[in-house]
């Protein structure tokens, strides 16, 4: 999916772009209002991250112009004006979907991006394919690479997600450690069993109610792992 970031601070553009690219988004950048409108028209992004304070045109004006054309692309506003709630409220009234106050955590911004896309029904080409377990308490969206536990998104690393999906896609199948290493790292990998065990430990801490009594990721002692819940 495509995301356009608009900010006149190069460091913010660099950091946000790096985090979004790591999540497999295609990122476009603009450092002014006029450039933002041009790139918005050309790239047709799935979401716009828009700074309110730009050198030539305010983010509020850009938001108003986009919404005035009938375009419903989700917009997240960036603002340093934490004390000027009237500006934030005005932006939301103009049609912005969310806002975050500078300085902000890039991880939090990425989570808000995913939340806004999901809420708008635009998440990863309307990803309707999912794996659901334990009466919907654990849901895995393969296309968007998202995991939800009790309706709250769980932040996983790329390897953690790949490992979880490999196990969950075949919930009754036993996976030797060697097979999981090949799946995650390739046939020529020099990673040891400890790499898989470390990922399993981290996954359990994130998705299990009790990591010492796992419900989802079960150990087959001396052999490997399998997923413990039928769909």
From TrEMBL:
Keyword Phosphoprotein part of the UniProt annotation: yes
- As stated in the Swiss-Prot or TrEMBL entry, residues carrying the post-translational modification 4-aspartylphosphate are 51
Please give the start and end residues of each transmembrane region: none
Give the PROSITE patterns listed for this entry. OMPR_PHOB, RESPONSE_REGULATORY
Q: Which residues form the OmpR/PhoB-type domain?
A: 128-229
Q: InterPro entries in the record, alphabetically?
A: CheY-like_superfamily (IPR011006), OmpR/PhoB-type_DNA-bd (IPR001867), Sig_transdc_resp-reg_C-effctor (IPR016032), Sig_transdc_resp-reg_receiver (IPR001789), WalR-like (IPR039420), WH-like_DNA-bd_sf (IPR036388)
Q: Name one GO biological process term.
A: regulation of DNA-templated transcription
Residues in the DNA-binding region annotation: 128-229
Q: GO cellular component annotations, sorted alphabetically?
A: cytosol; protein-DNA complex
Per its record, what are the GO molecular function terms?
phosphorelay response regulator activity; transcription cis-regulatory region binding
Domain named Response regulatory: residues: 2-117
**SUPFAM superfamilies cross-referenced by the UniProt entry:** C-terminal effector domain of the bipartite response regulators (SSF46894), CheY-like (SSF52172)
| Keyword field | DNA-binding, Phosphoprotein, Transcription, Transcription regulation, Two-component regulatory system
Q: Which PANTHER family match?
A: ALKALINE PHOSPHATASE SYNTHESIS TRANSCRIPTIONAL REGULATORY PROTEIN PHOP, REGULATOR OF RPOS
In Swiss-Prot or TrEMBL terms, this protein is called Two-component response phosphate regulator
Lineage of the species this protein comes from: Bacteria, Bacillati, Bacillota, Bacilli, Bacillales
